[in-house]
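Design request, tokens follow.
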């Protein structure tokens, strides 16, 4: 019987590989949203870390809003790349 089981699954290899490739290729891309539609991104002061905050709420302690017009919207966008190398201090001054 072992030979029979091998034959039944022998043709599944290429099909299984195709399924795995298609699932992983559709995973995260460089255009994924940083936060949900009902959230905004806030920067952890003195760091490049950020969190998502529900719209209408203030950022948690230690976080602040990005300066107007510089909030990253999608992973890998201009502002996401910029803020991955910069931060703000407690007074909102730019840190490099």
């Amino acid at each position: 019987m072992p030979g029979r089981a091998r034959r039944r699954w022998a043709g599944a290899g290429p099909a299984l590989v195709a399924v795995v490739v298609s699932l992983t290729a559709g995973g995260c891309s460089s255009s994924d949203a940083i936060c949900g539609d009902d959230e905004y991104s806030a920067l952890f002061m003195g760091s490049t870390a950020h969190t998502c905050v529900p719209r209408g709420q203030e950022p948690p302690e230690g976080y602040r809003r990005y300066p107007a017009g510089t909030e990253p919207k999608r992973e890998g966008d201009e502002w996401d790349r910029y803020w991955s190398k910069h931060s703000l201090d407690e007074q909102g001054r730019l840190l490099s």
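Comment from the thread starter after seeing the answer: thanks! The radius of gyration is 22 Å.
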